[in-house]
TrEMBL record:
Peptide N-acetyl-beta-D-glucosaminyl asparaginase amidase A N-terminal domain: residues covered: 64-397
Taxonomic placement: Eukaryota, Viridiplantae, Streptophyta, Embryophyta, Tracheophyta
Region of interest (Disordered), residue spans: 32-55
Signal peptide extent: 1-22
Keyword entries, A-Z: Signal
Top-level taxon of the source organism: Eukaryota
Name of the protein in its database record: Peptide N-acetyl-beta-D-glucosaminyl asparaginase amidase A N-terminal domain-containing protein
Matching InterPro entries: PNGase_A, PNGaseA_N
Pfam family, one: PNGaseA
Amino acid sequence: MPLRAPPLLLHLVLLLLVPALADVPDRYSSPRTGASAGGGLGNSPAREYLDPTYPAPRPPPLAPSCVVPVLSYSFANTYGAPPATAAYAPPAGCPAPWSLVVLSFSVAIAGDQYDRVAAVWLDGAELLRTTTAEPTPDGVRWRVRKDVTRHSALLRSPTGGVLSVMLENLVNDQYTGVYNVSVSFEFHGAPSYLADAGFSAGAGAVDRKPATPTLPESYFQPADLILPVSEATGNSSGFWFRIQNSSDSRSKIVTIPSSTYRAVLEVFVSPHSNDEFWYSNPPDIYIRENNLTTGRGNAAYREVVVSVDRHFAGSFVPFPVIYTGGINPLFWQPVAALGAFDLPTYDVELTPFLGLLVDGKPHEIALSVVDGIAEWLVDANLHLWLDPASSSVSAALGSHSTPRLSITRRYITRLLDGSFEIGAKRKYRFSGWVKSSFGNFTTEVEAELKATSLVEFSDQGRNKTVRLQAEQDTEVTVRSSETRREVGKVETEAKFPLWLEMVTEDGENGTYVMRTNLTHSLSVETEAEAQGLFERETKLADEQVAVGWMLVRDHSVLNGSAATTQAYRYSDDAGRYERAIDTLDGAVLSDNVTESSRGLDVAASSACCRGRRCHGIVAAKCSDIAAM
Ligand SMILES: *[C@@H]1O[C@H](CO)[C@@H](O)[C@H](O)[C@H]1NC(C)=O
Ligand SMILES: *[C@@H]1O[C@H](CO)[C@@H](O)[C@H](O)[C@H]1NC(C)=O
Ligand SMILES: *[C@@H]1O[C@H](CO)[C@@H](O)[C@H](O)[C@H]1NC(C)=O
Ligand SMILES: *[C@@H]1O[C@H](CO)[C@@H](O)[C@H](O)[C@H]1NC(C)=O
Ligand SMILES: *[C@@H]1O[C@H](CO)[C@@H](O)[C@H](O)[C@H]1NC(C)=O
Ligand SMILES: *[C@@H]1O[C@H](CO)[C@@H](O)[C@H](O)[C@H]1NC(C)=O
Ligand SMILES: *[C@@H]1O[C@H](CO)[C@@H](O)[C@H](O)[C@H]1NC(C)=O
Ligand SMILES: *[C@@H]1O[C@H](CO)[C@@H](O)[C@H](O)[C@H]1NC(C)=O
Ligand SMILES: *[C@@H]1O[C@H](CO)[C@@H](O)[C@H](O)[C@H]1NC(C)=O
Ligand SMILES: *[C@@H]1O[C@H](CO)[C@@H](O)[C@H](O)[C@H]1NC(C)=O
């Protein structure tokens, strides 16, 4: 009898002890002993969790303001239940138009619980996609504040509005945590000095008739109408479409006003179950060759595609948001992973497609996920700007063809070791003209999307490396159809590299130890200009670096230690804001904020990212990723 077991046996033994590595990273529940699990460092754990981003913009001085509490609900055993609902009506004391509206989503929870996904809808149109933090026995709380000024058209809607919140939770003897959620809105009116400066909706450049028309100011203000592109049966199971596979395309039939002169689709998306960690999934061949039972396959490329009447209209690689139970839950105490509390949304400029849509007839807007597996929660809002002076526009889409996704795959497998490389690229250019009372404008959308992905297993599958680099450049140019002169342009460059290295070792008694290093960042740069109105540049760079280990049995973290550093940097013409946070074992070691302002007047500093004036065009609303 040889002393060493043959390799095959070794693998089988290994699979019994450590999880199938194709199943890693995974989601775990936080240690019962509280956030400060290990290291014996004696940091006192934070009870207030946070997501350091740009603070919600300050309302202009002297503006009237109102707070409207809408819903309070305890989400206990809500799995499979309809969303919680409450009646909504805009505040009588703060009538529209608003200079700023903030949605506040506050949560408190104690006990043991997994992270959960949640969403807030108003009359079926989504306002917030969020995921929850995992609690400690002592309890944690946090508050998400989101600027929803661009959703004014929904919030203005007369009485009869219904706000819905979905949060599917499971409570039993082990997982005891009940999520207490409250939702409110803060409305800030438009003070007269802004209203006088053409701030109120509809004030445009209609009466000016220069040789080359310019874009009206209303173009850069919140849309006049927002139509949900979401599940019709939402009041029973949530308004998100539940996309199950790559051929599963979900759609909504919409009829839009014939006076629409601009259209932008705002897409919400979150992957779950077998695709929660899509960026680290191996291809099916690796799973088959090793007789693994995991459903986490289809390799590591995903792209969300939008179509209008079966015409490809735009796409994006979703930013890989890590939920708070993901990879190593100790990383996310008390600072949540990038975007986990306010998932990025993606704007797809549909103005070139108005030629298909403005005939007063029903049309189909569809959403699908390239290579997606169950399940993706996806829906969208169609933002529409209407011509105040005419009941119909005329429009046409230029020549159209579906852009090719060029994808190369290099897979090498040797039993549990393997290297899986993917390179993906898609480039497209659409154009269409719209003639409204403002003039005849041609909108061109040009986009290039590039992604490279590497998933590598070594040391007989015990080590795993993940490297994702996704990049999307988008240019939206508006020209006078007659003179071809450029009247407006927005360029957006989004990049999000992710690097992850994990080593798994067998522990005692059915446990294992996982050591992980992670670097994750999001960078979005936007340049926007409109003739005679403004010129603006914004830059966002947000990065997290985390190092740590954890001792795990099944899905429970028994011990561990983790350090996370986050550097958030935002700048625009009005100033810069930086925040750097250092955490160790659930405690904040340092939290430094540096802020400088270029001292512009209030009206200018409330422009674009900070206020409402440029929301329409600067879709990269500070933290949002524009796929325009
Ligand atoms: C957790 O691990 C640390 C470091 O190895 C050790 O000192 C501590 O005793 C462990 N705690 C528990 C509860 O096992
Ligand atoms: C959640 O709400 C319930 C009912 O109001 C309350 O008993 C409980 O203490 C709350 N939990 C937390 C963590 O605040
Ligand atoms: C849910 O929506 C459908 C379709 O709009 C409607 O017929 C039904 O009455 C609603 N149910 C509830 C409980 O609101
Ligand atoms: C994809 O999902 C849809 C919806 O669940 C289902 O009807 C269809 O059979 C699935 N297709 C494949 C190839 O699995
Ligand atoms: C997978 O299962 C098949 C059939 O039982 C067997 O022949 C093969 O050796 C197994 N492969 C591995 C890597 O265990
Ligand atoms: C796996 O990771 C461990 C710890 O970082 C390292 O010592 C070892 O060399 C790695 N093995 C391979 C094959 O890369
Ligand atoms: C608008 O401009 C386009 C492009 O120059 C032209 O083809 C179209 O006829 C114009 N539309 C109207 C209604 O003038
Ligand atoms: C091993 O785990 C079992 C069940 O989880 C527990 O009862 C037992 O005490 C553990 N043994 C050791 C040596 O930790
Ligand atoms: C992870 O980071 C630690 C500390 O910076 C370093 O010592 C270790 O080598 C890194 N591990 C890997 C696998 O890169
Ligand atoms: C915050 O500032 C202090 C003092 O300058 C410094 O020691 C610390 O490293 C800074 N923290 C971060 C996360 O940059």
